[in-house]
Amino acid sequence: MGRNCIGESSEQNICVEVACSTWQEWGEWSTCSAKCNFGISTRRRLCHGIFCPGKRVEVTSCHAGRCAMWSTWQEWSECSVTCDSGIKQRYRNCIGDNCIGSAEDMQYCETGVSCPQWTKWTAWSRCSHDCGIGERIRYRECSTAGESADSCKGQKSVRF
């Protein structure tokens, strides 16, 4: 073809097209969607132009640490009293932070034993003197369920 052709074998021309589309730098990763265990985190970027190839959003898994959980309950304590009704308690520990619920559990307990109680006072005795100053006395008993009579608080007799 042509050795003898006159002119250029190619031509060039200046053209102006729309600016090339480019991605902005990726933004920061979002905080993990879960407060504990596994969740997702995302980051975004903007396209400058009409069309940018690739993704606008990236998603990744994240681990926000172990969820807080309760240990098993400890054994119940002894009843708080040795007679009548009292309270017993048990405890558990939070493994991690911010466990929901209480670390302490309380329950009423019955000992099955009645507390010692004073009986009603007896009537006053006769005065120890027929005239002048004398004294009268009255008594009461400590009603117990197998405990010593010293278990009741207060005086057994009153002199007046």
From TrEMBL:
<dbReference type="InterPro" id="IPR000884">
    <property type="entry name" value="TSP1_rpt"/>
</dbReference>
<dbReference type="InterPro" id="IPR052065">
    <property type="entry name" value="Compl_asym_regulator"/>
</dbReference>
<dbReference type="Pfam" id="PF00090">
    <property type="entry name" value="TSP_1"/>
</dbReference>
<keyword id="KW-0677">Repeat</keyword>
<keyword id="KW-0732">Signal</keyword>
<keyword id="KW-0964">Secreted</keyword>
<dbReference type="InterPro" id="IPR036383">
    <property type="entry name" value="TSP1_rpt_sf"/>
</dbReference>
<keyword id="KW-1015">Disulfide bond</keyword>
<protein>
    <recommendedName>
        <fullName>Thrombospondin type 1 domain-containing protein</fullName>
    </recommendedName>
</protein>
